[in-house]
Structures are given as structure tokens and as C-alpha cells.
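A protein record in our archive is deliberately plain, so that people and models can read it alike. The record that follows is passed on verbatim for readers who wish to inspect the format.
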Amino acid sequence: MRAIRHAAAAVADVVRECNYATRRMTELRLFPDLRAAGWGCAPDSYADFLWRSQVALWREPSAQRRAAGARPHR
């Protein structure tokens, strides 16, 4: 029984790692500015602005939840 639990935990670790890698690769493809140096800063030129993604990376909480102290999350 112990060997089965160990094998199941190993499989779960592999699946978890694959899910993380898939999510990370999707983020890097959709949001190229994450790879750029200084990604949290404003773009230097209009070309930089156009290169950056127009999709929001963070999900913003509602105004009511922000007033209560909620923070953005992924």
C-alpha cells in the first residue's frame, strides 16, 4: 500500500510540474513584456508600447473588494 501511495504522489508531482510549465509558457507567449528587462516600467517608445500585450495579466477585484483591502491576483 505504501508503494502505491508513493507512486501516486510521484505521478501527482509530474502532473503538477507539467501544469505549471504549460501555464508559464502560455504566460510568456501571451505577455512578451514579462521577458523584457524592466517589465514593470512604462515603455520607452511607441514601438515598445505596441510590442507589449494589451491583455491584463492580473485580475482586479471589484471596487467594493478593493475598498476592503483586497489585492489583485493571478
